[in-house]
Design a protein that fits this description.
four-stranded mixed β-sheet, 4 helices, flat, alpha+beta, Tail fiber protein, 21 strands, single chain
Length: 340
């Protein structure tokens, strides 16, 4: 048995209610081990029987406890229910706290409706009927159509004079309606706002006329766009791979290509197959010049994750130790490191 194959836990181990399989306790056949400084709860195998240290003495856990039988005088849940919903309405216990009676009542459809259904209000307690939900959604869709953006063919030629505005011409209606949209086809002015070819003019009021405050301008022309910052939208330049790896430039953006270059330079990962039929120790050379190496190990036969001992022996090497010899290429182990 390989004495190096030890995983040390300086902490409580919580398996989140997972089963502890293929595990054996420490075995003692001659005498109990020393309990100096040992807290209560230590469990060992002493001469084939489990014993627990309770803080004062060893307790033999091999003695079986037979729980007393308290038959129920009534249990309606032993019978299949053919209608309604059977709810637990009473639990009766004796002086020792053991259950001696269980009672229930049927919850009908009418009960459920009266408890949960209420079409009159919106709340976090009640729900609506399918008919109420249908009406609500139909009304909501109808409201969302009100004020929809309506494209106006022909475009819009703005005023050539700063401070003035030419009224756009509606096409889909006889008068201007809120939500009408025109594409600006010439450079000019909408009041004191400069506009460029390709900008959009949107009416935000009915009968908007030639009042600039009754319109919204979007998609401003390129000349008006400023350099982008962390708080302002604008133009941005692409970083080179070297700039991305250096990580000091605060004004250029990374692409998928430069992002891959950073990950390739900073994150190292490689997988080895281990196992030769006889060895229990496996030295691996990764060449990454760091002691901060993580690992994950799987058994190839079923892809089950396996815990093994992995110890860095230098900045470029680690050693894997297991309890018993591995068959050829039985495990695959992946080493990962983040370089500064």
């Amino acid at each position: 048995m390989n004495n190096n194959a030890v995983i040390s836990n300086n902490a409580h181990q919580d398996n989140f209610f997972g089963e502890l399989k293929r595990t054996r306790f420490e075995q003692y056949n001659d005498s109990f081990p020393s309990t100096a400084g040992v807290p209560a709860g230590w469990v060992i195998d002493f001469k084939g029987e489990l014993h627990q240290w309770n803080g004062t003495k060893w307790i033999n856990l091999a003695y079986n406890y037979v729980h007393p039988d308290y038959p129920l005088t009534n249990n309606p849940f032993q019978v299949d229910q053919t209608n309604g919903l059977l709810l637990l309405s009473q639990i009766l216990t004796n002086d020792s706290g053991h259950v001696i009676k269980v009672a229930g009542r049927n919850l009908t459809n009418a009960d459920i409706v009266s408890i949960f259904l209420n079409d009159a209000i919106q709340s976090g307690t009640y729900t609506w009927s399918s008919n109420k939900i249908k009406v609500y959604i139909e009304n909501l869709i109808g409201q969302s159509l009100t004020g929809a953006l309506i494209y106006q063919p022909g475009g819009y030629i703005p005023s050539a004079v700063e401070g003035s505005m030419t009224s756009p011409s509606p096409v889909t209606a006889s008068v201007i309606k809120s939500g009408m949209v025109w594409v600006i086809t010439a450079n000019g002015w909408v009041g004191n706002q400069p506009v460029s070819i390709g900008d959009h003019l949107i009416a935000n009021a009915d009968s908007a006329g030639n009042v600039p405050t009754n319109y919204q301008i979007i998609e401003k022309g390129i000349p008006d766009i400023v350099d982008a910052t962390d708080s302002v939208k604008g133009l941005i330049q692409i970083a080179t791979d070297i700039e991305a790896i250096m990580g000091t430039n605060a004004t250029k953006a990374m692409t998928p290509k430069s992002t891959k270059a950073v990950l390739d330079a900073k994150i190292k990962s490689k997988t080895w197959q281990i196992g030769d039929g006889t060895s229990v120790s496996f030295p691996i050379s990764h060449g990454w010049n760091t002691l901060n190496v993580d690992f994950i190990c799987y058994r190839n036969a079923d892809n089950r994750k396996i815990n093994v001992s992995c110890v860095p022996t230098s900045v470029n090497d680690v050693q894997i130790d297991v309890l018993a010899p591995l068959t050829p290429n039985e495990y695959r182990i992946t080493l990962t490191a983040r370089l500064d």
